């Protein structure tokens, strides 16, 4: 028996037409296409989630459902039908198209509210195939869009039952709201942008901390140059945290060197010396003396000398020299030694 080139069937009030030669399929007089839920549709949605992420994919599905609902609300064109009549005519068509069993549980045209139940929808079947545990997004968005078009006022939804979450059906409560799909899209964009900013800020903070740790590790090390004589070069500009960390580091290591003289080399320090740096030098000198170590200052530039004087820093407790070499010679001489 040959397959007919053209065929038609009517299920309830819904018509289906095929034209094999032209490769056409019509649903209610309009071009349509068939997909297998467990394979083609699943692959399509899996790919979308892989590319965009689950959150964005859910928003796309919700938005598509809403906008399709707006289109469906225009199905009867200029026919003078009440909202209740429109819904009554539309509901059987969902079942005929394989969308699932749809029931309008409550509808209040005056309050513009409704409760819709859907059982065995294609979205539920897809969720099971994808092993999802959250509620539907397409159908709630779809019926929000459908009622928005029918009632002429923006409607949004709340899912009160979910077949995906092991309830008997998906139940959707619909009501007037200022929430829109456009607002949701903008909100997702802002959320993703904020996440990117926070991620970038965290990366900057982590990198800054890494660099700070490296700087603290390599800056101003204690250099034992000769027996009982150590040199500590001070580098750059010291703010509160760095000066405190350096002071603690030097004082904790000082006893290990059993040094009689600590030569603080100020050659590499910022000439516009900060109050933190001045206070750090003072603390190092006083604390070192309590440990039996004399502090010698070297490398003080004229500009730094003026700054130290203006800060009322008392240099009388320190022996000061222009170069590191002179400072070491002084310490050697005090020890009764010399370089030959």
Automatic annotation (TrEMBL):
* Alphabetized CDD domains for the sequence: STAS_RsbR_RsbS_like
InterPro entries in alphabetical order: Bact_StressResp_Reg, NO_sig/Golgi_transp_ligand-bd, STAS_dom, STAS_dom_sf
Signal peptide extent: none
Keywords of this entry? Coiled coil
UniProt KW Cytoplasm keyword: no
Name residues in a coiled coil. Answer: 190-217
Please verify whether the record's keywords include Membrane: no
Q: Give the STAS domain ranges.
A: 222-325
Q: Which PANTHER family does the entry mention?
A: RSBT ANTAGONIST PROTEIN RSBS-RELATED (PTHR33745)
What is the official name of this protein in its record?
STAS domain-containing protein
């Amino acid at each position: 028996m040959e397959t007919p080139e053209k065929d038609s069937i009517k299920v309830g009030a819904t018509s289906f037409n095929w034209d094999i030669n032209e490769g056409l399929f019509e649903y209610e007089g309009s071009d349509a296409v068939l997909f297998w839920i467990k394979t083609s549709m699943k692959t399509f949605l899996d790919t979308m989630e892989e590319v965009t992420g689950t959150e964005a994919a859910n928003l796309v599905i919700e938005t598509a459902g809403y906008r399709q609902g707006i289109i469906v609300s225009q199905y009867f064109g200029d026919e003078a039908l009440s909202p209740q009549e429109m819904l009554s005519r539309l509901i059987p068509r969902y079942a005929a198209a394989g969308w699932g069993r749809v029931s309008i549980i409550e509808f209040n045209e005056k309050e513009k509210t409704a409760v819709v139940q859907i059982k065995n929808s294609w979205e539920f079947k897809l969720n099971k195939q994808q092993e999802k545990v959250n509620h539907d997004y397409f159908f709630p968005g779809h019926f929000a869009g459908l009622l928005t078009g029918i009632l002429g006022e923006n409607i949004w939804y709340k899912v009160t039952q979910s077949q995906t979450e092991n309830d008997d059906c998906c139940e959707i409560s619909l009501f007037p709201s200022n929430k829109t799909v456009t607002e949701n899209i903008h909100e997702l964009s802002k959320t993703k942008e904020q996440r990117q900013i926070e991620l970038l800020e965290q990366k900057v903070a982590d990198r800054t901390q890494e660099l700070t740790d490296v700087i603290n590790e390599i800056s101003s090390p204690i250099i034992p140059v000769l027996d009982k004589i150590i040199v500590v070069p001070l580098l750059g500009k010291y703010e509160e945290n760095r000066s405190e960390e350096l002071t603690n580091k030097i004082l904790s290591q000082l006893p290990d060197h059993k040094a009689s003289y600590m030569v603080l080399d100020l050659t590499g320090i910022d000439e516009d010396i900060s109050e933190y740096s001045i206070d750090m030098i003072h603390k190092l000198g006083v604390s070192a003396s309590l440990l039996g170590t004399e502090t010698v200052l070297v490398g003080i530039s004229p500009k730094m000398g003026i700054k130290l004087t203006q800060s009322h820093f008392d240099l009388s407790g320190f022996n000061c020299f222009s170069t590191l070499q002179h400072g070491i010679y002084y310490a050697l001489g005090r020890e009764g030694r010399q370089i030959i």
